[in-house]
Fold:
Amino acid sequence: MSEEKKIPYKIYLEEQEMPTSWYNVRADMKNKPAPLMNPGTHQPLTKEELAPIFCEELVDQELNDTDAYIEIPEEIRNFYKMYRPSPLVRAYCLEEKLGTPAKIYYKFEGNNTSGSHKLNSAIAQAYYAKKQGLKGVTTETGAGQWGTALSMACSYFDLDCKVYMVKVSYEQKPFRREVMRTYGATVTPSPSMTTEIGKKILAEHPGTTGSLGCAISEAVEVATQNEGYRYVLGSVLNQVLLHQSIIGLETKAALDKYGIDPDIIIGCAGGGSNLGGLIAPFMGEKLRGEKDYRIIAVEPASCPSFTRGVFAYDFCDTGMICPLAKMYTLGSSFIPSANHAGGLRFHGMSTTLSQLYHDGLMEATAVEQTAVFEAAEQFARIEGILPAPESSHAIRVAIDEALKCKETGEEKTIVFGLTGTGYFDMVAYERFHDGEMTDYIPTDEDLAKGFAGIPKFPGNEF
Amino acid sequence: MSEEKKIPYKIYLEEQEMPTSWYNVRADMKNKPAPLMNPGTHQPLTKEELAPIFCEELVDQELNDTDAYIEIPEEIRNFYKMYRPSPLVRAYCLEEKLGTPAKIYYKFEGNNTSGSHKLNSAIAQAYYAKKQGLKGVTTETGAGQWGTALSMACSYFDLDCKVYMVKVSYEQKPFRREVMRTYGATVTPSPSMTTEIGKKILAEHPGTTGSLGCAISEAVEVATQNEGYRYVLGSVLNQVLLHQSIIGLETKAALDKYGIDPDIIIGCAGGGSNLGGLIAPFMGEKLRGEKDYRIIAVEPASCPSFTRGVFAYDFCDTGMICPLAKMYTLGSSFIPSANHAGGLRFHGMSTTLSQLYHDGLMEATAVEQTAVFEAAEQFARIEGILPAPESSHAIRVAIDEALKCKETGEEKTIVFGLTGTGYFDMVAYERFHDGEMTDYIPTDEDLAKGFAGIPKFPGNEF
Structure:
């Protein structure tokens, strides 16, 4: 490493270097992601149809695939300043321990109370809800990170916040509920008896530990049936990827500051919020033919939407009350095993990322849980950050890529997204320590059952 | 606020601006803190007497009251770079919500996996243990922050780590244990049956929820009876305050960068590690007659060493096997109620801070638990950081001082130490939310019982 370009352990942008606009990768895509579809008419959903579910300005963002940059309102930028910019960390210690010639960087999004990157979109969605004069919002949460983030954002803008939390996470993470309560939210384990769809799911699957798909159905039902409420979602949607582009924009600005050009960009993928945000500006360069990068989505082997799913229009929720989205999906009735990486337990994937993957612009790989926790513990001990299980999927593959460099001697530059901390995942860590953690890979039969629930109509062959 | 001096939300030092030496406030004290004393001979402890308990180089630091600056070894500085510098945050949002003309800053030490400032000294102590060729170290932990920090530090230097955790915290914070396990430590609830002193304490007080004083006794016993082990402590000692001076040095450097002169400096005080570190360079200026500051120690009303204790030589541990230290103390047999602010449950106080307080160079105030949690929740909602109960003692008083400024119209600059995050304190938050939290103030009779256990000998009148 030459002295004149010595790279610090952590690259922080100055406040004035922070992005003032989000980047909308769809503007640079030749093949746009397919629009959300009305499940009754099979026609693209209009603004009018979406407005009862989502805030108006967010609907505009959802449908906007032409403007490359959308200004971040000042109120949101001020909130960002409380916990952003997040550091881009050079993993010197990890590199040394692995003995790899690779240069490893990670964008660490865990240094805020929600514990993850989710706050980036939560504050934006709460802001637009407030601006519209709403009373409150409803949502689902898996691992609890999104629910916590939204609780914080709603508390900041004095909005009511109703959270439906996937039951398995609610039980495994009792303290998550208290954090949300600290921020004034109400938290209900899903499926619950508080909604029609919850009752129906419980009647059909009495012992279910829930899924993001169920919780979405409940939250949407409550939003659409209560005056002054709208539904907000922490992943999958285009608007979420837009807000999360702050991650990638900061990452790119920090890399550019030191003239660093990454070779591989790695992110975990559940619904795509982190991955879509992290890769946005890099994918933009790739789409515009300016640069090339290897981009790798990492998903759990227990819920392998990209690597084993089909590319088709499907419901985003188990209750099938939401719009159809064209995406890589395992079927909305697919309920994954009680995988501890709660945030990655979604059956589908962002339509934007799905299109990019379909067009060969990014790769995907699935990893098993125990291998993920091995990487998590190794990383914690070496880099001093206790990672969330979700984030650790990216760590696993970053380490694997760095070890390949060790074999080949290549000095590749690897950037990965460290989306959050694992303080509320200690039950999972405990199982790992006690040797009680197992891997679960759905059989082809398991998958076939999920695929069977995907709606069949002309043009939706898969 | 003038435009040319606009202060960012967070002031980060550059890597090259980070301190390269610790500051030893004792060098500037006219009245030095009284030396540790041999409980048998009542003579100051020599290096030879301390060496079986503590690492050699740490003994040197403990006894050194003449060198103002002690260089930070490069290995420690490299570790610091993984999580430091910590941000000095301008609490713009809190100021606005309170409607105060005061300017509030906080030095946030919670952005590392140990969740607190404790790592600053843990890594230093582990380094010196490794350098001495030891197998491992033993320690006690209250709230679990110190134990976690030490586990991380030992893992980094490949040292064995045995932690005795105050039973009430062990039970209230089961996930803390898992974090320590993640870093390879063994954790035992204290008092335990694994030591002679533990057995004795359990026989005398079968239902005890433990105290730092008990846990110290157990850890010291194990260290002194196992070849290749030494005992390390996360607070109270001079060496700890020395290492923690990194907090104050960074704070001062960040303030100086923007020409900010604080009026009031506030820190929570259990054994004094954070407070002593935060105030060190400011106290130095005060001692040298260069500047004046109001310095306020905040302690829990349930364990009020400064405000209701006596200034005398006393044992640091309940088992009375440790050296005597001259400090503000409630008596080593004082076991506070199961106050949730575990880290502040120590009966004594740093000898350095005790001397400074005795000499009128700083103030102290005691606050009640429910008022502390009110401040904690208010702060969490406004500033977006979920504070540890310990840290929230400082928040309470910072808010109170800011509200006084609102009344008087004074534009005072307040700096407080936000020592850590409360992710592992959700049981306490839950009690607060459920209205089950009570305050506990020891009666004069309670205190008299504790004082009765303080050793009586000529020169130790109180």
Q: What stands out?
A: Chain B has a mean pLDDT of 94. The interface with chain A takes residues 8-10, 12, 14-15, 79, 81-83, 89, 93, 111-113, 115, 119, 152, 155-156, 174-175, 178-179, 181-184, 377, 380-386, 421, 423-424, 426-427, 429-430, 433 of chain B (CB under 8 Å). The CA atoms of residues 247 and 278 of chain B lie 5 Å apart.
